[in-house]
Known about the structure:
The chain is an alpha+beta fold. 26% of the residues lie in helices and 26% in strands.
Amino acid sequence: MLRHLQIKVPPGKTRERLDVFLTHSIENSTRTKIHEAIDGGFVLVNGEPAKPSYKVNPNDVIDVTIPKPPPQEVNPENIPLKIVYEDEYLIVVNKAAGMVTHPAYGNYTGTLVNALLFHYNGMLAKQTQTASDELGYEPTNSRAGIVHRLDKDTSGLIVTVKDDVTHSKLALQFSKRSIEREYWAIVWGLFGKKNKGFVEASLARSKTDRKKVAVANVGKYAMTEYEVLEEFDFLSLVKLKLRTGRTHQIRVHMHHIGHPVFGDPTYGGRKIAYGDTAKKRKAFVNELLDIMQRQALHAKTIGFVHPMTGAKIQFDSDLPQDMQKVLRLLKRERTGT
């Protein structure tokens, strides 16, 4: 099966090599695979073959044909899970930072789905097949049980299901935005009198780097509610509620209003964004960054109506150790103890 992409180089784009531009523009691509596609004649620039070293120009039209690999078989793996709640229909897991939610390009093992398949011990496949007979479609285990996702390096609560009927009913709640989701994050800067509010900014894939998301005039509507819980010298602890559920939404929205999530390597969180840059301050910031090797973002609370019983249920979780340690050091520095 082939997938065709057409990419128009944005006006004003700085000239760069074709292979570099495509690596940044196509999600889950690598420079090696881009080279293979170019050498195989699967890449045309303005209708003509081009070399990897070709310097793209503004308004160039690039056509790329990508062979889609066959689906990967997903195998159960004995990976420990922090299970917050479980019944015959669903499981709520406190996902550790560093775990990918479901298998995808470059991450076919070690994911939450691999761990769930082992935990279910075959129960999921049987229930999914029964439900698929009723609903009229074939089961798949590549995203078995997954209704929503968390970024790899975002920790916290994620609800997964054991059959397609429960999946369908819970997915409907997500689509209606009736799921209660609360995140806590450590972000750069102080908010002053603007200690609570909303960020409304549409989001779309970045035109310069397809692996990133950016605020865009034409994109998917997104809203994040925020409230400052505590402020320190140059960082703040904030509570955030998703009113929509877009990819990287919190991270991009916080960066957009000048408060990138601390430690976030993708959206400016590993640069000193506030406070002086004196040698002593730099040393303290670097100490905190050594602890926080990821974005300081945790999905703390989730609440929803149980898809099968109709009961309203809510779950809460403690902040992970890395965020707790950063907060302890910030409080110690503030008090001078």
